[in-house]
Design a protein that fits this description.
The strands form two sheets. The protein has an eight-stranded parallel barrel, surrounded by five helices. The chain is α/β, with parallel strands linked by helices and about 325 residues long. The chain has one domain: NADP-dependent oxidoreductase domain (TIM Barrel, Alpha-Beta Barrel), CATH 3.20.20. It is about 35% helix and about 15% strand. The protein starts with a strand and ends in a 31-residue tail after the last helix. Helix 1 runs parallel beside helix 2, helix 2 packs across helix 3 and helix 7 packs across helix 8. It binds NADPH dihydro-nicotinamide-adenine-dinucleotide phosphate (NDP) and D-galacturonic acid. The site of NADPH dihydro-nicotinamide-adenine-dinucleotide phosphate has 28 residues, from strand 10 and helix 9. It comes from Neoarthrinium moseri. This is NADP-dependent oxidoreductase domain-containing protein. Keywords: Oxidoreductase.
Amino acid sequence: MAPTSFKLNTGAEIPAVGFGTWQAPPGQVAKAVEIALKSGYKLIDAAYCYANEDEVGQGLKAAFDSGIKREDIFVVTKLWNTYSTRAEVGLSKSLKSLGLDYVDLFLVHWAVGMNPNGTRPDGGDADRFPLLPNGERDILWDHDHVQTWKDMEALVKTGKTKAIGVCNYSKVYIENLLKHASIVPAVNQIENSPALPQQEVVDVCKANDIHIMAYSPLGSTGGPLMKSKPVIELAEKKGVSAGTILLSYHVARGSTVLAKSVTESRIKENLKIVDLTADDLKVLSTVPEVLTKEGAPLRYVYPPFGINFGFPDKQEGKTLKNGA
Ligand SMILES: NC(=O)C1=CN([C@@H]2O[C@H](COP(=O)(O)OP(=O)(O)OC[C@H]3O[C@@H](n4cnc5c(N)ncnc54)[C@H](OP(=O)(O)O)[C@@H]3O)[C@@H](O)[C@H]2O)C=CC1
Ligand SMILES: O=C[C@H](O)[C@@H](O)[C@@H](O)[C@H](O)C(=O)O
């Protein structure tokens, strides 16, 4: 039987399947979170950047009011780049929106600092996405992600988060962070799917007892992964949906998987995980080649920071301190 949870390097259990909230629209996300929790999800993945934490908090409250216990739910949120020099402020804002006094895991969203006092020529959301007059993101080029990590470490003592981790860290970023870290990140949340197995960073995390949380497992919104031939054929063979295959892939690799949906039937369907054998994983290992032949992309989430994050498939952009 596929595992339903994994152990973090803090000793805490983390569920194998989590509910994602990125791009979950206002007016829908509160209900979606409530349905997810009442259907059996034990992990909610949020972020300040998603600009919907108030509504996620409403969904949590509705579930808690119905008898679900806070201590049975694993809540994750993330420090956004404009708060990279103000980790405690970032966490406190998220806690207020979520209506919680602690989260189970607080993650650095990207190893980037963005101008905390920036503006936008178009009057848009400068608190999250400050832009320069030329339209580029307003990046703090001298910012050191290791310093953000030191501030994250200090947060653990406040009790406002039970554990800390990172997102979007490549092998070289993890290695550079570990040279200076007093606390080894509990988690690295990365884009992961049969299209983008990221074996290099998965291996370095495993070697250092850093748990992988896989995001965009279904290829995010509108991606070609759900329709990829090896995925469809394996789904037919096993008598399950393509989505079930794509989610089960991570649990078979020992990772937690995050799936987002605001559609009740899909929210429920995405809880289903099946065992995949070594042969099944071999079939899925052909996905990158198949998609590449079709001219389809393999990585779906790569925001325009203009930074080299050290991923082997993306080597362009500027170098940051302690970066690639
Ligand atoms: N740390 C980071 O930088 C990042 C973290 N994440 C986290 O990971 C989560 C998941 O990744 P995300 O990029 O949202 O994408 P997913 O891979 O979860 O795909 C979500 C899309 O798939 C659709 N969908 C969901 N279930 C099914 C299904 N069973 N059959 C068909 N379509 C389905 C959803 O539609 P609908 O909602 O309309 O049902 C939505 O359009 C995020 O929500 C977020 O919490 C994601 C990206 C980056
Ligand atoms: O978590 C999801 C993603 O990382 C998302 O937060 C970013 O892609 C963000 O929209 C950006 O444009 O930088």
